User: Fold Glyoxylase-like metal-dependent hydrolase (Beta-lactamase superfamily II) from Sphingomonas trueperi.
Amino acid sequence: MTDDAPTGLAMTLEPLVVRVLANNPSPFTNTGTQTYLVGTTDVAVIDPGPDDAEHLAALLAAIGGRPVRAILCTHTHRDHSPAAPALKAATGAPIIGCAPLVLDDAGPRADAAFDTGYAPDRVLADGEQVAGQGWTLTSVATPGHTSNHLCFALEESGALFTGDHVMGWSTTVVAPPDGNMAAYMASLDTLMARVQDRIYYPAHGDAIERPQRFVRGLAGHRKQREGQIVRLLAEGVGAVPAMVARMYVGLDPQLHGAAGRSVLAHLLDLQARGRVAAADDSWQLLPA
Assistant:
């Protein structure tokens, strides 16, 4: 990704889509956040990225003085939406997209914290559209990674901008209290039903050119994790740290807390379905 997507340079991916990579690489952003410009005569900006002066300058250079019809945010983690106010100030464009979400979450994370300054001019419901000259973007509600997550479908080309719901380099973080495994799995089903999507452009990682197959793989991975948890519970392993030690062999110990949040997301889903119960700091499998 770093070779074919150098930081700060506008790269044309298809006639209506340009990508600009922010210089914020990290363990949870891969090579950085990818901001997308959609349109030719006028444009929309998807996921303006972190509050970084160099990235803002790169975006303005890529926009090149064209009218900006909308600044669209898939969700409000700090690597996605904080540049929106400065971009709005520079272009006059409205901030449109996901609902605001501020969560006081001091637990161990494997992704960015929430953007407390996000203030949209318009919140898009599922299926609502934003349009310009020769392009139309439709919102697709995909809660799970966060409760306010949206994807955006480019109707003219069959491209879907997937934010963090589907990434091209890693599985998505689903961390309670806001991350919800049942919602995430349902959102994968939503994408599976969208056979019109030709290609995914995620906020992190490579473009996904066989999206249906990729989404099936993501769903299968989560079902395998759930199966591991059920088997461990059947063996009497009920504490989350003990599960993490068995399930994530070789993982950096500094990431065990974040892995535990993912295990907890599965357990809460199983609890809602009546398959497990919480007992103090442990969990137990209920009779079928």
